[in-house]
Amino acid sequence: MQLANRIYIVDGTLREGEQSPGVYFTRDEKVEIARALDQLGVPILDAGMPSVSTEERETISAIAHQGLRASIGVSIRLKKEEVDQAVQCDVKEVFIICPVSSLHLRLKLGTDEEGVKKSAKEVIDYASRKGLLVNLVAEDASRAEIPFINEILCDAYGWGARRAFLCDTVGVMEPFRMKELVKKVRDQIPAEMGLGVHCHNDLGLATANTLASIEAGADYPSVTVNGIGERAGNPPLHEIVLALEKIFHREHGIDMKRLYRLSRLVEQYSGIFIPPHAPIVGLNAFRHESGIHVDGILKNSLTYKAIDPEEVGREASFVLGKHTGTQAILHLLKQRGYEAKEEELREILRRVKERKMAGGKRGIRKMAEELEGYYKESLNFPMEAFWEIVEEVLKKNG
Length: 398
Fold this sequence. Notes:
3 domains; two-stranded parallel sheet; 15 helices; 10 strands; 47% helix
């Protein structure tokens, strides 16, 4: 199979990312994130679901009129009225969510394979005639029968869909099975039809499954900034881009120096904080404390660095603590023009470690308590307030 060299990132931060429990973006925040994604070089944005509210439609329309280079799309269900809402938002494409597993068809839609094909045909044809680029999103594809997936995607191309997305909706796949699924679909659907994947991170495999899909022929990976999304989230944009750059050597069109700035922006607006150990964008991604590592880096940075921090808008630094060695101390002293004997170096090192350990864990315990309170209040909705609303409304109407 001849793989396309160019990979087209599809970012769903404004739709899937905002579906993270407790998260919402204001209109201004969504517009700013959209602009930042566009400046980064992301070619396709899923800006939201028009059916959510009038406010959501107004926000999507505002994004669509920003004059961005990126193609702005929205997610809709198998409903013509939602196609009309997309048209009102003046977007260029739609992601039509189409369940394909028997479990979803039977329990969610109350239909069968023929029933969903009939609905899909009507909506795809309708959206195409409205001038929208149609993406058929095969929901729960990882638990569906491959022959039916191939059948409905081939039919969808004939009806007017130009791309298809295979979804690991509940995050149950692993890279080998995902690669096999994508290859079996890619080999059967029309060569002209773009193929993407939308993976979830319930088992921590969203990035691995997405990369396996790319290796199998998918060229439209779906991501979110910082990996935020439903439940455990989705593949982080920065992880997929760096893997494409460093491992797969595929064209992606992303300005990597802007990745960190974007991650911090979404962190601020979403309220979901980046863990210090997160790859590439985490606080510790380019910080070193261990004496063994610092010694190696001072001799040659390639010993313990696979990524140049400047490539992604970061800086490397050394951190003093329990695991610090004399080489780090010596390096810092030389920067200020100091000289020290061996015994002086060891005394400085001893005092550094003593000072670090003397601080104890009070700060950690305090932050843990504050975070627990923050998550309970800001990433939640108090049930007491809900029942107050219910009582007020029912009393008013009763």
